[in-house]
Amino acid sequence: MIRKLTAALIGVGVMIPGLANALGLGGLELNSSLSEPLNAKIQLVQTRELEASEILVNLASVSDFQNAGVERLYALTDMKFEVVLAGDGQAYIKVKTRKPIKEPFLNFLVEVNWPAGRLLREYTLLLDPPIYSATNTQPILKAPTVESTRTYTSQSSPKAKSAAKP
Length: 166
Hints:
Structural class: alpha+beta
Strand content: 25-35%
Helix content: 10-25%
Mean pLDDT: 79
């Protein structure tokens, strides 16, 4: 009994370092607005000694979208993914489209494959309208104020006039 328990603990101990060093996806940084081509970065976590050519990123399959309960919009088919491993240790995935995104809300699945595994992750984006700088806009002219003067006169009734005369 003790031998079986020891063998099981050794087996689990051998697998844990492999799980701890798995490739991961971090947060998404959005660099575009509504009605502009999509420009975003997804952080890659724990890339270890992997080369950019060993990390394959794409939009998940139709069946993966169905299994996750996420609608696969036609606008998502234009997405292009590029793995960037910078010399300073930063690694990320560039997410771009050629066409402007007209939907203010995007929900999509990213699939990452590497020699030791596969990962699916869902991302949700809320695209805000672009913000225009103050240098490009004209100041709003203040409407002229119109002052009106009304004069009210009180007219006395004939009864008041006759009552005032003795």
